[in-house]
TrEMBL record:
Protein name in UniProt: Integrator complex subunit 3 isoform X3
Pfam families for the chain: Ints3_N (PF10189)
Organism field: Dioscorea cayennensis subsp. rotundata
Source domain of life: Eukaryota
Domain spans labelled Integrator complex subunit 3 N-terminal: 1-302
GO cellular component, one term: cytoplasm
Family matches, as PANTHER family: INTEGRATOR COMPLEX SUBUNIT 3
Length: 329
């Protein structure tokens, strides 16, 4: 339909970029499925649409911000999009956008909230907002069971958990009144989702969704509430669920080292800034529960010390190279 209405669509940037965002996410799910003629035809239409939008309207696509990079990395194994990804990395001039010369310019643009509503349906949004606004600690289990039975029972439903995490981090920011109440906090729901996620690939993508804004955090343009759930999940999992704390910190440090090897120093500074601002703004009062936790492995302690220390110590940052697959790119 969108390809048939191309002239109209290209004159409405919001609809165009929203359609691209939605179809890139759907394509990541659909392309892995084996099916009949109809599914293959659907995949082809999705690929053709996404490639055309990105090739012909890349200037408008920049409005999506950094999550466009995250979505593209999830479909980079598709030949047509692999070629586009190479151009984005090594030949950005081919997109003919004045002033755009490097992918890091996309990293610096925070994705607007409305994009995160595109992959969760209105019913799911209403239920999540209810859960995060009215359900008290101690009463959440039956609501979680109800929500999981309704939305996670079908094969392949794990994929939407990544979208839920981005929605919770970036599009649902509770008021101070709710934060100070006994309502179940965002970090607890994300911790529950992490436990619900069984496959390693989806777990990695969920953790990437949780930490994505940490990698490019800029105090001038980003919102501290986007990075709050991750640090509270890390801290509140000590000591009872220290395995979650260990897993999350380990994953964060792997992202710093490997997400974009050529820009790892920039990412390291942004992560250090995230830790610093979370403390300065009173989101957390201390990192002592982490630094004094004997249950965390020594390498985790060593890396953590670098990122919560004064920024000048980042000169000692030493990346550890791993394979691309280990961070779910």
């Amino acid at each position: 339909m969108f390809l048939d209405k191309w002239e109209w669509l290209s004159n409405d940037p919001l609809v165009l970029t929203s359609a691209l965002f939605a179809y890139l996410r759907l394509l990541a799910d659909h392309y892995r499925l084996a099916g009949g003629v109809k599914l293959e035809a659907l995949k082809r239409m999705e690929i053709d649409f996404c490639v055309r939008v990105l090739r012909e309207c890349f200037g408008l696509c920049l409005k999506i911000g950094r999550d466009l990079v995250r979505l593209l990395q999830d479909v980079v194994y598709i030949p047509e999009l692999k070629e586009l990804w190479k151009d984005l990395l090594f030949n950005p001039d081919v997109f003919r956008v004045s002033g755009f010369s490097d992918i890091s310019q996309l990293y610096c643009v925070r994705t607007p909230k409305h994009y995160f509503l595109l992959r969760i349906n209105p019913e799911m949004e209403t239920e999540l907002r209810f859960l995060l606004s009215f359900v008290k600690w101690g009463s959440q289990k039956r609501y979680q069971v109800w929500f999981a039975k309704k939305h996670f029972s079908l094969p392949g439903s794990e994929t939407v958990m990544v979208d839920i995490v981005r929605f919770i981090c970036c599009a649902h920011h509770p008021s101070n009144e709710i934060i100070q109440s006994s309502v179940i906090p965002r970090w607890a729901i994300i911790g529950w989702l992490l436990k619900c996620c069984r496959r390693n690939y989806f777990q990695a993508n969920l953790k990437l969704a949780l930490f994505f804004d940490w990698l490019f955090y800029d105090e001038k343009h980003d919102n501290i509430m986007n990075i709050e759930p991750a640090i509270l999940l890390i801290l509140n999992s000590v000591p009872k669920y220290v395995d979650i704390t260990h897993t999350l910190l380990d994953f964060l440090f792997l992202l710093v080292d490997n997400y974009d090897f050529n820009r790892r120093e920039m990412i390291a500074r942004c992560v250090s800034t995230s830790f610093s601002l979370l403390l300065q703004k009173g989101v957390v009062h201390s990192f002592e529960p982490l630094t004094s936790c004997c249950l965390l492995a020594p390498p985790i302690h060593q890396r953590l010390a670098i990122f919560i220390a004064p920024k000048s110590t980042l000169n000692s940052f030493a990346p550890q190279v791993i394979t691309e697959g280990e961070v779910g790119k």
